[in-house]
Amino acid sequence: MTTVAARPIRAGNRTARGLGRRAGVTAAAALVLALAVLASLALGSRPLAPGAVWHALVAPDGGDASTIVRELRIPRTALGLVVGLALAVAGVLFQALTRNPLAEPRILGVSAGASFGVVLAIAVFGVGSLTGYVWFGIAGALLAGLVVFVVANRTREGASPVTLALVGAALDASLGAVVYALLSIDARTFEEYRFWVVGGLTGRDVGVAAQVLPFVLAGLALAALVARGLDALALGDDVARGLGHRIGLVRLGGGAAGVLLTGAAVAAAGPIAFVGLAVPHLARALVGADHRWTLAVAALLGPALLLGADVVGRLVAPPGEVPAGVVTALVGAPLLAFLVRRAKVVTA
């Protein structure tokens, strides 16, 4: 009798410890993000003390510190929060939907769709401002995602992980060829596109973050709705059906969420590398494969990584800057290699 009674108690203790550990990791990730935000507001070609940053936020006096914080650093920090969150969560979704640990926001051709929309805006419609062609980037990303799902659904296997990846790769290559063809015949388009395609937070005002925020919020809401279904998909389609999940709706909802998040992020900041690839693996290494926790931790670590990369880019070559997209590639590659070496890369 004693042994039988002890088993559920021990199981309950293990569950409580697991929840406590995951909650602790999430709190630590939130602290890391808060420190990254502070660093983004305080550090640059002119470093500011935390007290000066706080004063500029709550009681601006029109001085140099207030101008730097409110007009230069708050907009790029806000954009870094939105874009980093969107890319990281989209990476979790795409890795789960395709069951591919190397999947990232480019996998469904969404980034290429955003690039095509931006180039079309510049070359055909003569749009010359970032706030103008953000809308074209989002529209191109949404259209690319729609094409991928429609074409995949018409195949014999339907929107299976392999089919989605193959159709997305084909669309990525096709749109990439069109983009480079347009760039090769129009020098002005190339000059405009060159600024955007490197990927970064420089030169964007707070209006850009406000433009893409509704799409990011919609993507996050869809991601939260399909999180349990993604856990079931990881067990296989038959098991997911047996557990009562409608796998078609789960894939459609997860794909729509990923497309919204990727389209918004890429349109606003350009195709920033490795955030959507490395952060999901780091999140799973910390909290396991439960997508509710993985999505939450990735949503905190993604913007922390992007803001940290942006700060490093400001500090390494003052008074100039290295774009955040370059820094994330340099940091993300060894981070991913470290996770692989430690056997922490966990498939969804």
Structure description:
This protein has helices at 2-42, 50-58, 64-98, 110-123, 130-153, 161-185, 187-197, 206-233, 237-242, 247-269, 275-287, 291-315, 324-341. It has 348 residues and is an all-alpha fold. It is globular and about 65 Å long. 49% of the residues are buried.
Q: Which characteristics define this entry?
A:
disordered N terminus, 348 residues, 13 helices, single chain
SSE diagram, text form:
Layout lengths: L1 H41 L7 H9 L5 H35 L11 H14 L6 H24 L7 H25 L1 H11 L8 H28 L3 H6 L4 H23 L5 H13 L3 H25 L8 H18 L7
- The parts where pLDDT drops under 50 for at least 5 residues are 1-6, 344-348
Q: Report the radius of gyration as a whole number of Å.
A: 21 Å
Q: State the order of secondary-structure elements, H for helix, E for strand.
A: HHHHHHHHHHHHH
Q: Outline the biggest β-sheet.
A: none
